[in-house]
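Section 5: illustrative case.
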């Protein structure tokens, strides 16, 4: 399976890169192709026009944006699922992640998402995850029932994304099993055709 891993924090001292490295390693260990989409590296402007509005004949004003979004559109078209790596800002979704998601729509349709949330606190980003559920479903990539929160991410993962807790080492397997099941099921149904 091809999985786009969306890393949604833009803070300079974020912990999200550790979490994304861990998630990508878990996916790769299961034989999947995990591709990182890092909102910090993309430096997208606040949404003015969606990809579908500029993908053909972009004006000079949107030429740079088109160049940033075109590779994402290609990736999303071949993706079987989306792994969303989210921090929690003010009990909510990081604005950079929302902005990234909002640039596309049809490209997400009939592909499941899995939420890996984190925080420096014991809450593990779960309050953002609850809001992400609604956003992701509306965008067309419904989240799987299980989320994977990582509390105290700074001590749970090394800078290289290696798990430092027994929880991460031993217990996340069922989460990835569930995500794989949904990706396989959605892929099989997409091959038969979609409702619209």
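Designed sequence:
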């Amino acid at each position: 399976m091809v999985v786009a891993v969306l890393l949604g924090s833009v803070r300079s001292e974020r912990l999200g890169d550790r979490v994304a490295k861990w998630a990508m390693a878990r996916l790769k260990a299961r034989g999947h192709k995990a591709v990182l989409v890092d909102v910090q590296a993309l430096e997208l402007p606040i949404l003015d026009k969606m990809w579908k509005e500029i993908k053909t004949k972009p004006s000079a004003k949107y030429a740079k944006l088109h160049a940033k979004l075109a590779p994402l559109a290609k990736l999303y078209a071949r993706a079987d699922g989306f792994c969303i790596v989210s921090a929690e800002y003010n009990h909510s979704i990081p604005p950079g992640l929302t902005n990234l998601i909002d640039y596309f729509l049809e490209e997400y349709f009939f592909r499941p998402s899995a939420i890996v949330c984190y925080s420096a606190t014991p809450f593990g980003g779960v309050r953002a995850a609850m809001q992400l559920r609604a956003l992701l479903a509306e965008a067309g990539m419904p989240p799987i029932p299980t989320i994977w929160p990582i509390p105290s991410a700074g001590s749970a993962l090394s800078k290289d994304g290696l798990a430092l807790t027994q929880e991460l080492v031993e217990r996340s397997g069922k989460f990835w099993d569930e995500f794989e099941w949904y990706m396989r099921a959605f892929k099989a149904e997409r091959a038969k055709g979609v409702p619209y």
